[in-house]
Write a structure and sequence with these properties.
64% of the residues lie in helices and 2% in strands. It is mostly helical. Helix 27 packs across helix 32.
């Protein structure tokens, strides 16, 4: 009724429920007619929206016309909303990004290469950005291939087109896996290497190395490492499992390269190996945060180190350390007792360098320490450890070998040194006894130090011409002394680790923390400590993890074995009169100070303190120390010089300087043997 519609009550009332909701949506024709009518009525050119006269109002007020225009604009979205499924499918279909036959015609080619494929271009762009906020979106462009495959089968119905899409996706996904796994491993390795460096140096490294700067920031690879529901062409792919396999392979390659580099260098490279294995271990920890199924690092290390056999007592690192210690460190290096260091003297004909494996070719930076600047940084740190084998290298060797490996190395050294006594050293001692003059008296003080020196030189002239004096006698004694010094150095490193572990244990008589905690838990459960399996397992674990005891020495078993090897040689070595062992060793030490191997090449610089350590060891074990102190040629000349006080010429002064240094080395060696309680025969 028109009158009702024009009434004030109708205009002021609520008409929200005048039209009940319909169960069926309007048809497209109805929607089109409604929108056409609303447009015709609300348009500015419509008669209903215009004034019929100057004072009259239009049939449709401004508010109503504005509301109708708003409805017209909003109703434009009704059609896609009424067909929501088709609309969403059309909007999510990005197959047009791959299908490009038009461009094939323009380029006059049969098929585009993968490098020109838009999904791969987008994916490659994300990969080139590396660890940036774009990285979590890396897999988004691969959804284009799903749409293309669906369009090829459902719309175009072309099997060959689907095969082409499938082949390209296989290439693209393999390249994505390869590049992504390399970037993730490089990121974790770089981050691990930076964590091991001094924090004060991180700023300068990050400023000069973009890879290091990205590694210090947020890890944008984390969402990809957790991806387990990737679907491509209808096939579910566990991306995390794929990356886990590749991370395991790269971690094994990294450990293998570190060991191979160690095998191609001197024993000094153990510091570099220690740093590389530390970086690999920490890299493994970082990788397992996102890939928990990664193999344990100990398994990876054992496999690369070839120590996975049943009851395997050997490994690549142990074999390399044993071979270099026996074939290079003992015969070719000089032990400096004051510096506690093995350095490399000038080469001679009887100290040829051992053969070593070739270094790996063209090692990628991410398999070492992450980036090239970090590789150079760690190389400088390894070089700063010194050019000689010292306590720092012994501690590194203990870390990479472990206590079991250190015991095996000590056992190999013990066998080698024990074989020197009856074979090499015994023949030289007997030869020296035969060549020694029948009578060598101590010259009188009236001759002075120069006269005494000339007397001993004349008496030992034939022995000085012995062709194997340096290459045989001194060289063999050096090997024996260097071996004892090396075992002592390794024992000191083992003692340092044991002391550090002991510092973390409770006071003597107290319970270990693990046992105390297990006892408290058992008491809370109402169990006696003696009846609790948890307390029993805690006690067993505390016993297994306890540090090495002081009785677990490396040097004492070696000295005991050398003493046992000397027992059958005692009668022949001691001799009588001029052939007594202390007389032989007096002659050897006198020639050590006077008979240079080459002009300007001092024997002390060439052989070090290992010769005196070996001689003092033999004298101490055979009870000849005091006889040596009384009848030593060098000691007599030095005593004559100190008693006379006459100035010495250049030759005598050089000789006395060498004697003083040798005397100090002898005293230190005898003091060490006395402190150890070395067994005497």
């Amino acid at each position: 009724d028109e009158a009702v519609l024009k009434s004030k009550e109708f205009k002021a009332g609520d008409h929200a429920h005048d039209f009940p909701p319909r169960a069926a949506p309007p048809a497209m024709t109805q929607l089109w007619l409604l929108r056409s009518a609303v447009r015709a009525l609300s348009d500015d050119r419509s008669l209903f929206a215009q004034k019929s006269s100057l004072l009259a109002e239009p049939d449709l007020s401004r508010e109503v016309a504005k509301e109708m225009r708003s409805f017209y604009v909003q109703s434009a979205h009704f059609e896609p909303l009424l067909q929501l499924s088709a609309t969403v499918e059309a909007l999510s279909d990005v197959s047009f990004l791959w299908t490009r036959e038009f461009y094939l015609e323009l380029c006059d080619v049969v098929q585009f290469p993968t490098s020109m494929s838009l999904p791969w271009v987008l994916t490659e762009h994300v990969l080139r950005q590396r660890n940036t906020p774009l990285m979590p979106l890396l897999l988004a462009p691969l959804g284009v291939y799903n749409c293309c495959a669906d369009a090829a089968l459902r719309q175009h119905k072309q099997q060959h087109l689907y095969a082409e899409i499938e082949g390209e996706l296989a290439l693209v996904f393999e390249q994505v896996l390869f590049t992504l796994s390399e970037q993730v491993f490089a990121h974790c390795k770089t981050r691990a290497s930076l964590m091991l460096l001094d924090p004060a140096r991180l700023g300068g490294i990050a400023a000069a190395d973009d890879g290091a700067a990205q590694a210090l920031g947020r890890n944008w690879y984390a969402p990809l490492l957790a991806e387990r529901t990737l679907v491509l062409l209808g096939r579910p792919i566990d991306l995390a499992a794929q990356l886990t396999v590749r991370m395991g392979i790269m971690l094994r390659s990294s450990v293998d390269i570190a060991i191979s580099r160690f095998e191609s260098k001197e024993l000094l490279a153990v510091v570099e190996l220690q740093a590389a294995l530390r970086a690999c271990r920490l890299t493994h920890v970082l990788l397992r945060e996102g890939l928990p199924d990664l193999d344990e690092f100990e398994e990876v290390l054992a496999e690369a180190n070839e120590a996975v056999g049943f009851l395997s007592f050997s490994s690549r690192i142990l074999d390399k350390a044993t071979r270099d210690a026996i074939d290079d460190l003992l015969p070719n290096c000089a032990y400096r007792q004051d510096a506690v260091l093995f350095d490399r003297p000038p080469p001679t004909a009887f100290t040829p360098p051992p053969e070593r494996d070739k270094a790996p070719r063209s090692t990628p930076p991410h398999l070492l320490f992450g980036t090239s600047p970090l590789n150079a940084e760690y190389a400088m740190l390894a070089a700063a450890a010194g050019t000689g084998f010292g306590p720092r290298h012994a501690e590194a060797l203990l870390e990479v070998l472990g206590e079991a490996g250190m015991q095996a190395l000590s056992r190999a050294l013990s066998e080698h040194l024990a074989a020197l006594l009856p074979h090499s050293l015994s023949s030289y001692v007997l030869a020296l006894q035969e060549a020694l003059p029948a009578e060598i008296k101590q010259p009188s003080h009236v001759y002075g130090a120069a006269g005494c020196l000339g007397y001993y030189e004349a008496k030992l002239l034939d022995l000085r011409g012995y062709e194997e004096l340096h290459s045989g006698v001194l060289h063999t004694f050096r090997r024996l002394g260097n071996g004892v010094a090396l075992v002592r150095l390794l024992e000191a490193a083992l003692g340092t680790r044991s002391t550090f572990a002991l510092g973390q244990l409770p006071v003597e008589g107290g319970q270990p923390p693990l046992v105390a905690a297990a006892t408290a838990v058992a008491a809370a459960w109402g169990q006696q400590a003696a009846d609790s399996d948890m307390v029993l397992m805690a006690e067993q674990l505390a016993g297994v993890c306890a540090p090495a005891r002081s009785s677990a020495s490396l040097l004492l078993p070696l000295l005991a074995r050398l003493s046992a090897e000397l027992a059958p040689l005692k009668a022949s070595w001691l001799g009588e009169g001029a052939t007594a062992l202390h007389r032989v060793w007096s002659a050897v030490q006198f020639l050590f100070c006077t008979a240079e191997h080459a002009p300007g090449l001092d024997n002390a610089a060439l052989f070090g303190d290992g010769v005196s350590l070996a001689g003092c060891l033999v004298l101490h074990m055979l009870g000849q120390r005091h006889a040596f102190d009384l009848h030593a040629f060098n000691a007599h000349v030095l005593a004559v010089h100190l008693a006379g006080g006459a100035p010495a010429d250049a030759t005598l002064d050089r000789y006395l300087t060498r004697v003083a240094l040798l005397k100090r080395a002898n005293e230190a060696a005898f003091a060490m043997l006395e402190a150890l309680g070395c067994e005497k025969r």
